[in-house]
Structures are given as C-alpha cells and as structure tokens.
Design goal:
Length: 93
C-alpha cells in the first residue's frame, strides 16, 4: 500500500466474514503492513449457510485529506481491480 507515493508503514488491516443481515460479522484475522507497505493476511470462518464473504478493512487516515471547512476535497483511488478468481455478483447491492 502506498500513501502519497510512499510505503504506508504499519497500517492496520482486518479480515472479517460479512454475515449481514443474519448477525454480526465474524473476525477472521488482523495484521499490519510492513516497511514496504505490503501485508499478508489469512483467516478462516464457518457459516451455517453458504460460503464466507470476506471483507478486507483498511484503517488509515491520510493527513493530507483532513480538511477544515465545509468544502470537501476529493481523493482519486485510481484503478482498483475487483475481479478475482472466485468473484461473484448478487442482487442485494
């Protein structure tokens, strides 16, 4: 991960299983980025029905985009590839 073209060091990441709307999300694993902004996280969960729906949460506040006043500042995330080997679509969202 990068922040302002620099490695985002020690950024907290958390992996959960999305159980909405049945009950609360299941915690699977947590970790942090290394000195180069990389992380490796694995976890597991069991669901009573169907497979797990993993959610990756990234905890980072970009200081450059904390602003005072009422005019919002936009941030361009560039390209994020969402297609994975096991990606799927549903009609809920």
């Amino acid at each position: 991960m990068l922040c302002n073209r620099n490695a985002s060091v020690n950024t907290r990441v958390k992996l959960c299983d999305d159980d909405f709307p049945a009950n609360h999300d299941d915690f699977m694993a947590a970790g942090a980025t290394d000195a180069e902004g990389f992380f490796d996280i694995t976890g597991s969960a069991t669901d009573g029905v169907g497979g797990i729906e993993p959610i990756l949460q990234i905890y980072h506040v970009a200081k450059k985009y904390l602003i005072k006043g009422t005019k919002p500042k936009m941030y361009d995330f560039k390209t994020i590839e969402l297609k994975g080997e096991r990606s799927k679509h549903d009609c809920l969202h």
